[in-house]
């Protein structure tokens, strides 16, 4: 159904989450690959290699969404994730939202200040007692690193 919402000049590249691959029948995967403007990505292809080549990301709740945000890519979230609901993503609540949100997605860019604020909060939660105002430079360095990678069209 998401493929029917694509703007005319877009294609959808599908990569199944590695944890779900064993639960998806091969027939279903083949059927998805037969849809117009939909392409299946090899499960062995690393997302860090794919992200520089895409214009936007649609995800249910994967860390790929977070990685895309850090690279300044627009992200449409179909499920719930820690990075959703803060203006960093275009959040779809129901499939009825998909058609108009797909059109909005390509122009969506999270504000760097919001990204930095969220990363600071995540670090504070992940490293309780270890992260404080003295380590705010970690966030700035991380964002600078992601920006440089995007400019150089490469990731580690």
| Uncertain segments | none
Number of strands: 5
Strand order of the biggest β-sheet? 3-4-5
Q: What gross morphology would you assign?
A: globular
Overall helicity: 25-40%
Rg result:
17 Å
Secondary structural class: mainly alpha
Summarize the structure.
This protein has helices at 26-33, 47-50, 63-70, 98-105, 112-126, 136-152, and strands at residues 12-14, 38-40, 57-59, 75-77, 90-91. With 156 residues, the protein is mainly alpha-helical.
Describe the structure.
With 156 residues, the protein is mainly alpha-helical. It has a domain at 2-110. It has 6 helices and 5 strands; from the N terminus they run βαβαβαββααα. It has helices at 26-33, 47-50, 63-70, 98-105, 112-126, 136-152; strands at residues 12-14, 38-40, 57-59, 75-77, 90-91. A 3-stranded parallel β-sheet has the order 3-4-5, with helices on both faces. A two-stranded parallel sheet has the order 1-2. Helix 5 crosses helix 6. The longest helix has 17 residues, at 136-152. The relative contact order is 0.13. The mean pLDDT is 76.
Describe the secondary structure blueprint for this structure.
Elements: E1 12-14, H1 26-33, E2 38-40, H2 47-50, E3 57-59, H3 63-70, E4 75-77, E5 90-91, H4 98-105, H5 112-126, H6 136-152
Parallel strand pairs: 1-2, 3-4, 4-5
List keywords for this structure.
156 residues, mainly alpha, three-stranded parallel β-sheet, two-stranded parallel sheet
């Amino acid at each position: 159904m998401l493929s029917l919402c694509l703007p005319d000049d877009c294609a959808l590249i599908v990569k199944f989450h590695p944890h779900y691959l064993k639960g998806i029948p091969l027939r279903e995967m083949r059927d998805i690959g037969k849809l117009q403007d939909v392409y299946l990505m090899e499960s062995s292809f690393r997302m860090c290699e794919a992200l520089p080549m895409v214009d936007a990301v649609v995800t249910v709740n994967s860390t790929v969404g977070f990685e895309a945000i850090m690279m300044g890519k627009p992200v449409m979230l179909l499920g719930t994730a820690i990075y959703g609901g803060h203006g960093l993503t275009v959040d779809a609540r129901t499939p009825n939202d998909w058609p108009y949100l797909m059109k909005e997605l390509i122009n969506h860019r999270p504000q760097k200040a919001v990204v930095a604020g969220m990363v600071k909060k995540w670090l504070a939660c992940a490293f309780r007692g270890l992260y404080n105002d003295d380590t705010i430079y970690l966030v700035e360095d991380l964002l600078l690193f992601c920006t440089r990678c995007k400019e150089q069209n490469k990731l580690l």
